Amino acid sequence: xxxxxxxxxxxxxxxxxxxxxxxxxxxxxxxxxxxxxxxxxxxxxxxxxxxxxxxxxxxxxxxxxxxxxxxxxxxxxxxxxxxxxxxxxxxxxxxxxxxxxxxxxxxxxxxxxxxxxxxxxxxxxxxxxxxxxxxxxxxxxxxxxxxxxxxxxxxxxxxxxxxxxxxxxxxxxxxxxxxxxxxxxxxxxxxxxxxxxxxxxxxxxxxxxxxxxxxxxxxxxxxxxxxxxxxxxxxxxxxxxxxxxxxxxxxxxxxxxxxxxxxxxxxxxxxxxxxxxxxxxxxxxxxxxxxxxxxxxxxxxxxxxxxxxxxxxxxxxxxxxxxxxxxxxxxxxxxxxxxxxxxxxxxxxxxxxxxxxxxxxxxxxxxxxxxxxxxxxxxxxxxxxxxxxxxxxxxxxxxxxxxxxxxxxxxxxxxxxxxxxxxxxxxxxxxxxxxxxxxxxxxxxxxxxxxxxxxxxxxxxxxxxxxxxxxxxxxxxxxxxxxxxxxxxxxxxxxxxxxxxxxxxxxxxxxxxxxxxxxxxxxxxxxxxxxxxxxxxxxxxxxxxxxxxxxxxxxxxxxxxxxxxxxxxxxxxxxxxxxxxxxxxxxxxxxxxxxxxxxxxxxxxxxxxxxxxxxxxxxxxxx
Length: 623
Known about the structure:
Elements (H helix, E strand, L loop, with lengths): L1 H8 L6 E6 L5 E7 L2 H8 L8 H9 L2 E6 L3 H15 L6 E2 L7 E4 L8 E4 L8 E3 L5 H14 L20 H4 L13 H15 L3 H17 L3 H19 L11 E7 L4 E10 L2 E11 L6 H15 L6 E4 L6 H12 L4 E3 L4 H31 L1 H10 L8 E10 L2 E11 L2 E2 L5 E4 L8 H25 L15 E5 L2 H13 L7 E5 L4 E4 L13 H35 L6 H11 L2 H6 L2 H5 L6 H10 L7
Parallel strand pairs: 8-11, 11-12, 13-17, 17-18
Antiparallel strand pairs: 1-2, 1-3, 4-10, 5-6, 5-7, 8-9, 9-10, 13-14, 14-15, 14-16, 18-19
Helix pairs in contact: 4-11, 8-9, 12-13, 13-16, 14-15
């Protein structure tokens, strides 16, 4: 603290940004200030006026850095960027901000595409969003493709060769074929301009222009083009019909309201373009205890508009925010024209904010219910299972094992892990069963259990001898409960193997699929749990996941072995040529269809070997 006191004395009376750090030198909070001297010192004065969140943060501060700026506006912009970069623990964060999808129009290309992206970059491309889900983006792109024949492929048009065929979209009239030279850049850009107007919700201007083109086409007796334009007009009008006119001001507005929760909050945003409600999105924010609505609103606005491609004329809020004036200045500079942040007290605008708030509160309540249900089927199910099986504790980590084979060939074992009732896929493991002939599930289960826990104990001892955390290894963290797929036989094989290794402290059970009976070690009769039990349903989910994981692995091995066995039957094709063929073609079907010329291009392949392949698959060649 002496170090901090000395730094506090040297703080400048300038605007800037401060970065609070913990003992690991990790940034835990980023803030801005008109006066760094006054703002930062406030944190280390009497804590009586501080909220619980601020007190918790201050208790973890071991150091801080400052960055001075020339103005409060520069400090605001820097603060936004640093929060986005470092995602500090004690800042209010737009949850999964990097994952929200956008529509990107690739204006840097000669013939721009309309694509989904999750990254906004500083380039000449145009971005629309963010959207709440990728499905919404894909649905919008599908509508655009039907209305406007813009390309969506990734082809490098400059490398197209004469005779290259266009893609399917060209044949179904959803692309004008710039790859074929069917449209020049200027004409294509006009289509992209229409796409932008559509995404901006400027439907009236778009329809008016389409009608003019339709009438011109009809006068020129180009009835096919006129009919096509008529269909587009009808499609745009149908989209318009779904959009309610809710503002007589005909302005571009965003209406923002927040349903404030304890750990998470829901933000509802209505997008109004030219007086019409063109869309709405809900966003989740990580919030902490004792957070106020105005604080959350300010944080959301800064993070949301930092990357937003469009800034409206008006932003309507449910409450005043402390930084309204400086945020207005920032957004005005970004937009290039005046932006207003307003809190309506009456009238239609107040009704809009109330409607957004109602939606946010309903979404928050749904989120709470979802969390209750999720807890019941995960942690709650684990607690119920402990009671039903008379376990000494509630199992946090459950490992399940399954064996998969067909008539004893390619036997494999799977190990899946559930933590607090949820899959922990990074901990999944798979085993290729060795040295066992025929379909012997008991011996296979014993081998898999032995290999998993033998390695786990070895890793645990090695880590402990080095003074490291015993749970750091791939196998060293042991489960609280072991589940094997099968009946008494599989359970006996697993338990006897565990006893051999000196493990008698992990409860072990099996789940028989036929009657969903649970066998427990040292009990003669199976335990029967009601089918509607959350504990049984949890075991079923874990058992089914182990089964799926084992079958998936088995199929992949079987497929590889089938390919190898087929190629082994072909004369003049040895191990090196088999590997080269699979690397070059990827599948038996592709090899089967390959011509003599294509086969000859494979590394190490001569004409004699290529002819052997063609003869084997019964193909004729004129060579």
